[in-house]
Amino acid sequence: MAQTIGAKTICTTCPYCGTGCGVLATPDGRGGLSVKGDTAHPANLGRLCSKGSALGETVSLEGRALDPVFRGSRIKWDDALDLVAAKFLEAVDEHGPDSVAFYVSGQILTEDYYVANKLMKGYLGSANIDTNSRLCMASSVAGHKRAFGTDTVPGTYEDLEEADLVVLVGSNLAWCHPVLYQRLVLAKKMNPALKVVNIDPRRTATSDIADLHLSVRPDGDVALFNGLLAQIVDRGAEDRDWIDAHVSGAGQAIATAQAGDPAESGLSAEDLAQFYDLWIGTEKVVTMYSQGVNQSSCGADKVNAILNCHLATGRIGRPGMGPFSVTGQPNAMGGREVGGLANMLACHLDIENAAHRDAVQEAWGSPRICDHAGLKAVDLFSACGEGRIKALWIMGTNPAVSLPDAEAVSQAIARVPFVVVSDVLAETDTTRLADLVLPALAWGEKSGTVTNSERMISRQRALLPAPGQARADWQIIAQVADRMGWGDHFAYDSAAEIFREYAALSGLGKRFDRDFDISGLKDITDAAYDAFQPIRWPVAEPGAEGGRFFADGQFYHADKRARMLPVAAPAVQDLPRGFHLNSGRIRDQWHTMTRTGRSARLSQHLGEPFVEIHPEDAKAQGLGPADLARLTSDTGEAILRVLITDRAARGSVFVPIHWTLATGAAGRVGPLVQEVTDPVSGQPASKQGRVDVALFSAAWYGFAASSATCRSARPYWSVARTATGWSAELAGLRAPRDWEAEARYTLGLETGTASLLEDPRKGTVRVAIHDEAGVLQGLFFAATRPVEVARRHAVEMIGTKVAAVEALAGRPGSDRPDPGATVCSCYTVGVNTLRAAVAGGADTVEKLGRATCAGTNCGSCKPELQALIDAMSNTSKVAAE
Ligand SMILES: Nc1nc2c(c(=O)[nH]1)N[C@H]1C(S)=C(S)[C@@H](COP(=O)(O)OP(=O)(O)OC[C@H]3O[C@@H](n4cnc5c(=O)[nH]c(N)nc54)[C@H](O)[C@@H]3O)O[C@H]1N2
Ligand SMILES: Nc1nc2c(c(=O)[nH]1)N[C@H]1C(S)=C(S)[C@@H](COP(=O)(O)OP(=O)(O)OC[C@H]3O[C@@H](n4cnc5c(=O)[nH]c(N)nc54)[C@H](O)[C@@H]3O)O[C@H]1N2
Ligand code: SF4
Ligand SMILES: [Mo]
Asked: What pLDDT, in 10s, does the model give residues 814-831?
C-alpha cells in the first residue's frame, strides 16, 4: 500500500504551515521518529524546512494532556462527555442556541472540522462556531467571494515556476512558507529572467531574494494597487475583450483607482514606476500574498485591490498567472471547505440561502439548521465577556494568547460559566482558564485529511500509538453528540466514514452550481482512504482531478461574471505619538510554541521575545543593543529584548507572536494589540497596533542554564529549551538579597553544592550548582548590564563534570571557540563559526555549506547565510577603502 515504504515508514503531511509538505516518518520504536521529505508529494517534492525536519523532536509525551481533567481533578471520559453534553444542552434550553459557542482551528483535520460544524450548525442550531482562521484567512475569503462569487484560490504552486514575475505582498515566505520559498529560489535559478518583488514595510529574509523591495507604508497596499490599476488603464494594458465578456464593475473600480494617489503608499515615484513597469510589462505574473494583506482593518479591500489588477488584465488561472493567497495553517483551506467560519455553511454553500440550508439539513437529516450567521471570533469573545455565552468549547487553538487584547479575552473566557478546552498539552494559557480539559490526539497519532494552499487534499496518518486517554477530536465531538441524543447521526467508526459523508454532501455543488465538489470520492473504500494520494479538488467524478480555476472566464456569481470592486485607500493617518506596532512570525517557532518550543534545536535560533526597531528610532528612545524595552498600548504592556536593525521601517516596531505566559513574564504581543477589525471580514488588524516604547531600566540582568525547568518571579523572564535542559533570560528591578537563593529558584535546583563568585566592582554575580557526583546542574550569571556570557558554551557545560572555576568563567578557553547564536538549526551551526568560515574564504552559500554543513539540510537558513556573507563583504569593502 502507498503509505508503507519499507517496514514502518509512513507517508503523512507536516502539521505546520499551509505549504502542506509530504513527510516520510519512521517511528524508532521508543516513542520518537525520524522524518524526511516525501519526494512523491507534489507540494514539496522531497524538501522540508527546519520545522518539518525537527518534527521527531516534538512528539515526546512531556507536558501532554493525557486524561480529562475537571477543575484540577482527573475524571473518567464517560463523566467528562456527559458533563459537556449536559452543560451545552442546558444552556440551549435555558438561553437558546446562540448562548453556546465553539471556537476551533485551522489545525484540526477536515473530518474533525466537519463533525464540529455539523453538531453546531445542524443539531445545536447555532452558527456560533468560528475558527482561528478568522485571524488568518477571513479577509481573503471575503475578497474572493466578493470578486469571484466563491472562496477559491485559482492557481497552483507550479505557477511559481511558470511565472516571469512573482510579487510577494505582506508575506515573509522565506520564514513562513520556507519550502515554497525554496521552490521560488530554484525557479529563479532555472529562469534568471524571473523577477521577484517583495512588498513589506520591513526588510525581511524574503526581501533578500527580491529584485525590488518596496517598503510600503503600513496599510499602503490599497493605494499601491489602485495606482497599478490606474496605470494599467492609462497605458491601455487592460484586456477589454476579457472584461467585456467576464467582468462587471470595471468602470467604477477603475474610476475609484484613478481618483486615488499612489504616493499614499509611502513609496517614491521611482519605486512606483519601476513596479508598475514590471507588473504591466510581464504577462506571467503571480501576486502572492499573506498576513500583511489579510490582517488589516482594510484587509478585504487590499485583497480586492490586488484581484482587480488581475481581473482587468485577464491574468488569472492560466499557467504562471494569477492572485495567490497563501494559507497559514495546515488545514486553513480544509476549514473553509467544510464551512468552518461562522458565516459559512458546509461545501461552499451559504447560510443566507434558504435552498442551500434546506439541502444541507436534508442531507444531514438534522432536526434544525442555523438560519443566520454566528459570532465572528472577536465578537464571540466580547459576547463571552458580556455574559452572553454560557458554554464554550475551544479546540486546537490558544485564544488567550492569539486574539487581540489577549488580556481582556482571557478575562472574557474566565467569565463563561462552562469552558471546555480540547488540546494536546495539559498547560497552555487557555487550558488554565478551562473548567474541563480534554486530551486530544496530536499529529502523528491522528488520522484524516488536510487541504493546502493549492487545494491539494493530503492525508495525515497515525504513526504512533494513542497516548494515555487521548482521543481524536472528531471522536470526542461525536461522543458528545451521542450523549446529546443524536448518536444515530454521529455513529462514525473512522475518519474514512466521515470523509465519505462529507464528500457525498459536496455533491450539492452540482445542484447549486458551486465549485467545491469532491463527490467523486464519496465511495472511497477504507483501503483506498488508507492509500490516499494527494489530489487537488474539484473531484466531481471518480478519477477526476482539479486544475486551475477561472481561465475560462466562468465565475460563481449568479451571472457567472467576476466583479471588480471600487476600493478606496484608507486615509493616511500620522501617529499622534509612539510607534506603529507590527507583529508576525520567526523562522523556527510555530505560533504559541506548544510544539516547536519543545525542540532544543528550534529554540536556539531566536530564543527570546524581542522587539525589532530601527537604529534611529532606538537612539531617539535611548535604547541600546540588548537593552530591554517596555511597550505600552491602550490595552496592555510587554517587556522585550531590543533588537536594533535597519531592516525595521522607521516609526514601526515588529514583535513576534510566539511567546506566552508559559514561556515568559511579559513577552506576549496579544495584550498590546487593540481590537480593531476589518468591517467586511471581521479579521483583526493584528499588524496595525499603536504602542509607546521606552527603556525598561532593570537593576540587574541574568542568564541561567539548568538541567531542570527554569522559572522566575521577576518582571522580565523568558525560558527556552536547550540540548541539556532549559535556559532563562531574566531581569529585575531590585537586586535580590540572597543571590544563591535567587539562582536556585531560577534554576529549579533545590539541592546540590553552590559555588558563588561575586565581583562588586564589576557588578557581576556567578553561581554554579554541582550535584554530589560533581556534575554541573546549573549556571546562573547576573550583572548590572545585559549579561555577556557565551550562552551556548554555558548550556553545553550542563551535565558535564566541569570544575566550578571553569564553569564560572562563562567563556570557553581559547582552544574551544564559542560557536555563537545558532543560525542553522539542522546542524546547530553558530554565527561565530560561520563568520570564521566566511573570513576563511567561504564567500558563497554553497562554499559555506561545504565548510560548515550550514544550510545543507533543509535550507531554511540560506537567506541568513547570504545576509551574513553580504554584511561581511560590505564591512571588508569599507575597511579597505
Ligand atoms: N515559522 C513559522 N511559519 C509559519 C507560521 C508560524 O507560526 N511560524 N504560521 C503559519 C500561519 S498560521 C500563517 S497565517 C502564515 C503567515 O505568514 P506571513 O504572512 O508571511 O507571516 P507574518 O510574519 O505574519 O507577516 C508577513 C509580513 O507582513 C508584513 N506586513 C505588516 N504590515 C503590512 C502592510 O501593511 N502591508 C504589507 N504589504 N506587509 C505588511 C510584516 O512586516 C511581515 O513581514 O505563516 C505560516 N507559517
Ligand atoms: N498579534 C498577532 N496575533 C496573531 C497573529 C499575528 O500575526 N499577530 N496571527 C494570527 C494567526 S494568522 C493565527 S493562525 C493564530 C494562531 O494562533 P493559535 O491558533 O491560538 O496558536 P497555536 O499555538 O497554533 O494554537 C494551537 C493549539 O492547539 C493545540 N493542538 C495542536 N494540535 C492539536 C490537535 O490535533 N487537536 C487539538 N484539540 N489541539 C491541538 C496546541 O497545543 C495549541 O495549544 O494567531 C493569530 N494571532
Ligand atoms: S514548509 Fe516547513 S512547516 Fe511548512 S509544511 Fe513544509 S516542512 Fe512543514
Ligand atoms: Mo494563520
From this structure: 666 677 778 888 888 888
Cell of 461: 496518518
Distance CA(38)–CA(52), nearest Å, equals 11
Reported as a pLDDT band with limits 50, 70 and 90, residue 3 is: very low
Tell me, yes or no, whether 564 lies in a domain.
no
* Cβ(394)–Cβ(649) below 8 Å: no
Task: Give the pLDDT band (50/70/90) at residue 501.
Answer: very high
Indicate if the pLDDT at residue 833 is higher than 50.
yes
Decide if 64 is inside a domain.
no
> Is 543 part of any domain?
no
How does pLDDT run across 308-332, given as a tens digit for each residue? 999 999 999 999 999 999 999 999 9
Protein residue with least CA distance to atom 4, ligand 2: 402
Rounded-to-integer distance, Cα 67 and Cα 428, Å: 15
Lowest mean per-residue pLDDT among 119-128, 817-826, 849-858: 817-826
The three-point CA angle 407-411-416 to 5° equals 145
| 656 CA from centroid of ligand 2 (Å) | 14
Which residue's CA is minimally distant from atom 12 of ligand 2? 136
User: What pLDDT shows up at residue 814?
Assistant: 62
pTM of the predicted structure, to 2 decimals: 0.94
Overall number of domains in the chain: 6
The verdict on 665 and 755 lying in the same domain is no
Atom 3 of ligand 2 has which residue's CA nearest to it? 402
C-alpha cell at 725: 535542559
Residue in 63, 78, 64, 85 with CA at minimum distance from that of residue 420: 85
Q: What is the mean pLDDT of residues 682-689?
A: 96
Of 809, 834, 851, which marks where a domain is finished? Answer: 809
What are the two backbone dihedrals, phi and then psi, of residue 9, each rounded to the nearest 5 degrees?
Answer: -80, 130
> Do 505 and 364 fall into the same domain?
yes
- Burial label for 679, CB within 10 Å (0-12, 13-18, 19+), is exposed
Q: Write out pLDDT tens, residues 615-663.
A: 999 999 999 988 999 999 999 999 999 999 999 999 999 999 999 999 9
Q: Do residues 688 and 719 both lie within one domain?
A: no
pLDDT of 5 reads 40
Identify whether 431 is part of a domain: yes
Q: What is the mean pLDDT of the chain?
A: 94
> Does position 878 have pLDDT exceeding 50, yes or no?
no
Q: What is the pLDDT of residue 300?
A: 98
Q: What is the pLDDT of residue 29?
A: 86
Say what the alpha-carbon torsion angle 407, 413, 417, 423 is, to the nearest 10 degrees: -130
pLDDT class for 876, splitting at 50, 70, 90? Answer: low
For the Cβ of 183 lying below 6 angstroms from any atom of ligand 3, the answer is: no
Q: Please, are residues 136 and 328 in contact by the beta-carbon 8 Å criterion?
A: yes
- Cα(228)–Cα(413) distance, integer angstroms: 44
Quick count: other Cβ atoms within 10 Å of Cβ 773? 7
Q: How far is the CA of 200 from the centre of ligand 1 (A)?
A: 10
One domain, residues 257 and 361 = no
Q: Which of 458, 667, 480, 457 is nearest to 583 (CA)?
A: 667
Same domain? 425 vs 345: yes
Q: Which domain holds residue 42?
A: 4-57
Is the distance from the beta carbon of residue 14 to the nearest atom of ligand 3 less than 6 Å? yes
d(CA 669, CA 342): 26
- Whose Cα sits closest to atom 2 in ligand 3? 49
Ligand 3 pocket check for 224: Cβ under 6 Å: no
Q: What is the DSSP secondary-structure string of 644-658?
A: E-TTSPTTEEEEES-
Tell me, yes or no, whether 751 and 796 share the same domain.
yes
Whole-number Å distance, alpha carbon 844 to ligand 3 midpoint, is 25
Is the distance from the beta carbon of residue 20 to the nearest atom of ligand 3 less than 6 Å? yes
